[in-house]
Every structure is written in C-alpha cells, then in structure tokens.
Design brief:
Blueprint (H helix, E strand, L loop, with lengths): L16 H22 L6 H8 L3 H8 L2 H25 L5 H14 L3 H10 L6 H8 L7 H10 L9 H17 L1 H8 L5 H18 L3
Helix pairs in contact: 1-2, 1-4, 1-6, 2-3, 4-5, 5-9, 5-11, 8-9
Length: 214
C-alpha cells in the first residue's frame, strides 16, 4: 500500500501496520470532539466510527468498549502532563509559571479536553470521575501542593501563599479560558489561534508572578 494513500472508509479486518497509528489518532480525535460536545452518554461507538470514516468493529478492535475509548482519550491528553509534573519533582524548580506553561500547553494541544473534564470528571455522575480521582488526580493537581510547598520553602513562593489553594488557582486560571472558549471568542473577542494562546500564556504568567511568586 502506498504510504500516501488514504485508508478505506469501511475497512474489514486488520489494516496495514503503517496505517494503524493514523487510524487510532483519527478515532481518538473524533471521540474527543464528540464526547466534549455532546457528553459520553449521548455519543455511540457507531457515530464515532461514522464520523471517523471507519467500521465500528475497528473502533472496538482498537479500544474495546466505549468507556475504554473515553479512558484512552483522557490518557492521551493527560498522561504526558503527569509525566512532566513527575519530572519536576526531581528538577530544580517547579514555579507557578512553569506549571502554568504545562497546563496551557496541554489545553492548547487538546482544546476539547477541558470541557470533557468538566462533563465527565468534575460534575457529579461523570463517567470518568472515579477513574480520574484514583489514577490521574494524585499525579496531576494532587502533586502540585507538594511542589509549591517546596517552592515556598526555598523562598520562590510568597510566604502567605497556601500551596493547596495556589495549586487550585493555577489550574483554574489556566484551564478555565479553554472551558469558556465558546463564549470568550465571540463575547470577549479573545483569539485562540497560536498567537492568541501565546499572548494568553503571557498574561497568565504575569498574573501568577505578581500574585504568588516571591
């Protein structure tokens, strides 16, 4: 098969190995968008498959159940963030600015994830609430107070800054702009293109420096 040829829309059986990763990414992209727009309960495997241009059996082959597909969507976006935060524990610095850069970069790469987290993690009854709480939260937001407490102990965080509240505020100021995007663009005139996100990052960094850093 030519590497530049497009995979058939209705593939039976296992596709060529060179095509598998592209197909997986396409399915994950579509699932991320649909789950965030309509919610887990309202989106079927069949719809995800149709919008992705593949057979529903292929979605089941790669990801198993719909819930495991949702888990894969979250893992793809959030796992690199967990790895980066873990590396901060062994690094020389974990300032609010560095943490903010990680959070904004994740949201910019996966702009649907913040809304998906609201739907399926933060709200009561969310499909991924237990999974996220047990497997992701301790390595993400749960790890930040310890890092910020270390920053405070060496004098890089304000003496009157509470590490746990500071962690929550950093997450809020970095993630909420992406949750509010559907209104922030038309109502506030905020741009979310590459330059707009870079400017947003600078504004958030300035706010954190003035409000938290010593």
């Amino acid at each position: 098969m030519n590497s530049n040829s497009q995979a058939p829309e209705r593939t039976r059986g296992r596709p060529a190995d060179t095509d598998q990763q592209n197909l997986k990414e396409r399915i994950l992209d579509m699932a991320e968008a649909l789950f965030s727009d309509f919610g887990y309960a309202a989106v079927s495997i069949r719809r995800i498959a149709e919008e992705s241009g593949v057979n529903p059996a292929l979605v089941h082959y790669y990801f198993g159940t719909k819930k495991s597909l949702l888990q894969s969507v979250l893992d793809r976006a959030v796992e690199p963030l967990g790895v980066a935060i873990a590396e901060m524990k062994d690094g020389p610095e974990a300032s609010p600015e560095l943490i903010a850069n990680l959070l904004i970069s994740m949201a910019a790469s996966h702009p649907n994830i913040p809304r998906l987290l609201v739907r399926e993690v933060f709200l009561p009854g969310g499909e991924m609430r237990q999974y996220f709480t047990e497997n992701m939260a301790p390595r993400l937001g749960g790890a930040l107070p310890g890092l910020l407490n270390r920053e405070k102990s060496v004098g890089r965080l304000r003496e009157d800054a509470d590490p746990s509240i500071s962690a929550m505020l950093i997450m809020a100021v970095c993630i909420f702009p992406f949750i509010a995007r559907t209104l922030a663009e038309p109502v506030l005139g905020i741009d979310y293109d590459e330059d707009g996100i870079e400017f947003l990052k600078k504004q958030i960094t300035q706010l954190l420096k003035q409000g938290m850093m010593a």
